[in-house]
Amino acid sequence: MYLTYPIDILSFLNTVKTCKGNVFFRTKEGDSLNLNSLLSQFIFTSIVCDEHFLVSGEIYCENAEDYHTLENYLADAAPSGN
Length: 82
Fold this sequence. Notes:
This protein is an alpha+beta fold. Helix content is about 35%, strand content about 20%. It contains four helices and five strands. It has helices at about 10-15, 40-50, 50-55, 65-70; strands at about 1-5, 25, 30-35, 55-60, 75. Strand 2 and strand 3 (about 30-35) form a beta hairpin. The radius of gyration is 11 Å and the shape is globular.
């Protein structure tokens, strides 16, 4: 799943904290950031400030129920860059 853009980063990360399992941001290069990690959240925040990098990554939830928790922030397709 892809993140919607623009995104309220603080609200999204606070919602990630309520998830039952780990939530990852995976870049197209194959890097994974565990969004439960404060260091990964810092890196993620710098990534999402640039739409080019944001649309090249996906959100992956270990627990399938967490996709429902994050549904307000997710889309089936990457947002188109303007």
